[in-house]
Design goal:
Elements (H helix, E strand, L loop, with lengths): L6 E8 L7 H17 L5 E11 L2 E8 L12 E6 L12 E8 L14 E4 L2 H10 L21 H11 L13 E2 L3 H9 L7
Parallel strand pairs: 2-7
Antiparallel strand pairs: 1-2, 1-6, 2-3, 3-5, 4-5
Helix pairs in contact: 3-4
Length: about 200
């Protein structure tokens, strides 16, 4: 449950929580390959989302697949971009959505490890974050188009937003024995851009 206090709350959700098992299984395979490649132990993978409370309203900021079918505005979609390769993005299955959804829901929020974690409480920064969501870079999911050394994905979107509003990212880390692929890509892309006005 998200506290009623004004703030930006970060959720660390185990990859594939509440899903069909396909995402979880493919994530585990990916992590085993990465662990073997980098000669390190396998870690738990996390997907991140934000819940913002401001002016007695709640907003969800998350990256999801385009589901259910229907008007994207009804689920707060502000950015849509391809998965794996630009040409594939013509097919709905190979697109992702960035949502900024007033009174929206994070389907697997109850699975978040440690519950919602407050990362920012300044109302001005919260409003700035909401204003920034539509300008998230529409980069290809699963690729490293900006040469950051990390792929762009849902975690990149969240870390990009938090970095852009000036949250101290050095104090934010995944749960113990876990990692969030794409997190560093979002930080790197954000830092390479001019500081936002405000």
């Amino acid at each position: 449950m998200v506290p009623n206090a004004t703030g930006v709350y970060l959720l660390w959700i185990p990859l594939g929580a509440g899903g069909s098992g396909v995402v979880r299984a493919s994530g585990r395979l990916y992590e085993r390959l990465m662990a073997w490649r980098h000669r390190r132990p396998t870690l738990d993978l996390y997907h991140t989302a934000l819940i913002l409370r401001i002016d007695d309203a709640e907003h969800v900021v998350e990256t999801m697949w385009p589901s259910p079918a229907g008007d994207p505005a009804t689920r707060g979609v502000v950015v849509s971009a391809p998965v794996f390769a630009d040409p594939l993005g013509r097919v709905r299955l190979f697109r992702y959505e960035v949502r900024s959804w007033r009174n929206g829901v994070v389907p697997d929020a109850a699975a978040a490890v440690g519950g919602p974690r407050l990362v920012e409480s300044d109302p001005q920064a919260i409003r700035q974050l909401l204003d920034l969501v539509p300008s998230v870079p529409a980069l290809v999911w699963g690729r490293d188009q900006r040469a950051t050394g990390d792929m762009w994905n849902s975690n990149s979107v969240i870390s990009w937003l938090l970095t852009r509003i000036g949250v101290g990212m050095e104090r934010i880390t995944p749960p113990e024995s876990g990692r969030a692929p794409g997190w560093d890509a979002g930080i790197a892309v954000a830092l390479a851009q001019p500081a936002p006005a405000g």
